[in-house]
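Handoff note, outgoing to incoming analyst
You'll be picking up this chain. Sequence as last confirmed:
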Amino acid sequence: TTLFRSADPLTADCLSTGLYVMGPEAALTWALAHPGIEVVALRVRGETLEALVTPGLEGRIETLVEGVTLRVWKG
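Most recent structure output, in case you need it:
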């Protein structure tokens, strides 16, 4: 699952499918090169769910359930 944030709803709509198809790592890396776009990507790691976020979301997002780890993607 890939979620993202953009100030412009049209941009958000256009990017939703493309970023999802790219996969978590590629979507996060792409977002690092495009100011104003923030991404949260969820992926399964063994028995845990990992939430990867772009640096712009650091300190602005938290996990609310056990078993989910949060990591800032630096590329």
